[in-house]
Amino acid sequence: MAAKSVTRLLGGLVVAASLGSASLSQSIASRILVKNVAIVGGGASGAHAALRLKEDYGKSIVVIEAADHLGGHVSSYHDPTTGRDFDYGLNSFNDYGPARDIFTRLSVSVTPAAHGDLASKSVDFASGQLVNHTGPAIPDMFAALGKMYGIVKQYESLMIPSYAQFPAPSAIPADLLLSFGEFVIKYSLQAAVPQIFAITGNGLGDLLATPTLYVLQAFGPATLESFLGIAGAPFVPSSGRNAEVYEAIATRLGSNVLYSSKVVQSLRTGFGVVLWVQGGDGKYTLVLADQLVMAIEPTPENIEPFNPTASEKAVFDKFAYSTVYAGIVSHPSLPTNASLVNTVPAAAPSNYLALPKPNFTVAFTPIDPAAGLWSVGVVGNEALTSDAAKALVTSNINAMVASGVLPGVSGAKVTFKAWAVHGAMHARVSAAELKADFIRKQVALQGKTSTWWTGAAWSSTATSILWAYNDLLLPKIVAASPA
Ligand SMILES: Cc1cc2nc3c(=O)[nH]c(=O)nc-3n(C[C@H](O)[C@H](O)[C@H](O)COP(=O)(O)OP(=O)(O)OC[C@H]3O[C@@H](n4cnc5c(N)ncnc54)[C@H](O)[C@@H]3O)c2cc1C
Q: Which residues form a coiled coil (predicted)?
């Protein structure tokens, strides 16, 4: 950070304090860090941005991460009985853009992700009753996915990896503004829907009501290419532990990460930012940086300590989110040889447009039934709390036992072996907002008050695409920094 910027920022600090916009003073900080770039959030986007800014652009950086590790939605469970490790959050990495190079650079060897070809039972989790539902034949599913790819590939450059080319409202392709249900009916893509819902579409909550633009962010051309064999297969670290890639980044970043830390107050200006960061020990660090990279979901709660500007609020207040939880559970009634898939009664016998609506448990999948371990995911609206999500899981199992679909075991309770709060995901707005030029207003926030935005709300939900998005964003951040 240039000395001139530090002086101006410290001047700004005094002014802010005297105007009452900063209630914590510099004197309560136990240390002051002066950096080129401060990065808030060390998940998929923040960890990658930090690595590249530090190593490829020679910038001094600090990452402020709320958790005690990097990696965001990567959730790992170590079974103390068997010694085995399981990933129950992020599943695999798309072979897209720079992803393989990042693993090579970090010396993390990779292997194709395993395909689960387990039998499944369709059950209405609310009533506990079996649903006589048959999914599409595999050739029909592939034909529908192939047809969808042929339609959506033309839109890819508008949204992936970045919205930089997104057009003015009059030129937005009509398909992107249709609800996904309308889009599916328009092109007779029904046979693609169960697969899209099972892989990433469930995270959107009400998949068919979501504007097609946002469905393509979660399951777009890149995902279709890997399904259709046009791109390489998704991969995982050969160790089987997705966390390995973020552990390798953590090693490279060293003491430049403030773990268990959050920004509690800030001052953002056109010539740098001041962040008051509170660590898990309660102590404050004052961070002065030329540029700020926000790599967290821009929820009202997350951005409140950053005093959002009127333009930022006008954009971020419009976002709606899903709330996502994932866990590993144990219960003696769960089947060892099949996964249980939540299926609404209206899906019988083969209505692929009848899907669960939030709040719902997605499925119970045996991951090590001999050790009594099943993975489970829950998707809800913004108000769904962690306790309510766990209660839903328990009530679903109880309903299946009460209906006789699962065998009853006297006194059995659900044990939550692991539980991850993935929180707000899949930021999206209505088609009406998209028509009101939302995306270009969002993009226009980049670089204002020395603040840059990355992460799923700005690109795709796939990690590999987010890394490609960073590759476009980082040169702009560097160009904006004083030499
Ligand atoms: C169950 C599940 C399975 C998934 N499977 C896949 C998959 O197989 N492949 C794939 O590519 N993607 C997958 N995803 C999606 C992918 O993980 C996300 O889209 C991606 O992680 C988003 O990256 P991000 O950088 O925007 O946010 P995140 O990775 O969520 O990172 C945000 C980081 O910021 C931290 N943080 C949050 N608030 C604050 C704060 N106020 N201050 C400081 N730090 C904060 C968080 O702890 C986190 O580390 C999955 C997601 C879930 C939930």
A: none
Of the CATH numbers 3.90.660, 3.10.450, 3.20.20, 2.40.128, which one belongs to the domain with range 76-236+320-427?
A: 3.90.660
Q: Model confidence at 202, in pLDDT bands (50, 70, 90)?
A: very high
What three-state secondary structure class fits 58? coil
> Residue 28: is it exposed, middle or buried by C-beta count within 10 angstroms (0-12/13-18/19+)?
exposed
Q: Name the residue of 74, 77, 90, 276 whose CB sits within 8 Å of the most ligand 1 atoms, as the mutation to test its pocket.
A: 90
Atom of ligand 1 lying closest to residue 326 CA:
1
Domains 3-74+246-315+430-480 and 76-236+320-427 share a fold: no
Mind listing the pLDDT tens digit for each residue in 395-438? 999 999 999 999 999 889 999 999 999 999 999 999 999 999 99
Per-residue CA distances from 388 to 237, 321, 382 (Å): 34, 17, 12
Q: What tokens appear for 479 in the block? A: 């160009």
**Would you say 193 and 204 are in contact if contact means Cβ atoms under 8 Å apart?**
no
Give the domain ranges of the chain. 3-74+246-315+430-480, 76-236+320-427
Pocket lining: 38 vs ligand 1, CB cutoff 6 Å: no
Radius of gyration of the chain (CA): 23
Q: Is 298 in the pocket of ligand 1 (CB under 6 A)?
A: no
CA quadruple 474, 215, 69, 280: dihedral sign: positive
CA distances from 186 to 151, 175, 178, 198 (A): 11, 9, 10, 21
CA of 69 to the centre of ligand 1 (A): 12
* Most distant CA pair in the chain, distance: 73
Is the C-beta atom of 67 inside 6 A of ligand 1? yes
Which regions of 205-342 does DSSP assign to beta strands (E)? 235-237, 257-258, 262-269, 272-278, 284-294, 320-330, 338-342
- pLDDT tens sequence across 33-92: 999 999 999 999 999 999 999 999 999 999 999 999 999 999 999 999 999 999 999 999
Ligand 1 within 6 A of 470 CB? Answer: no
- 228-276 pLDDT, tens digit each: 999 999 999 999 999 999 999 999 999 999 999 999 999 999 999 999 9
The separation between CA 315 and the C-alpha centre of its own chain, rounded to angstroms, equals: 19
Ligand 1 centroid vs 324 CA: distance in angstroms?
Answer: 11
* Torsion-angle region of 134 (φ positive above 0: left; ψ -120 to 50: alpha; else: beta): beta
Taking each helix axis from N to C end, the angle separating 138-152 and 180-187, rounded to the nearest 10 degrees, works out to: 110
Q: How far away, in angstroms, is 43 Cα from ligand 1 center?
A: 5
Q: Does domain 3-74+246-315+430-480 have CATH number 3.40.50.12160?
A: no
CA–centroid distance, 72 to ligand 1, in Å, is 4
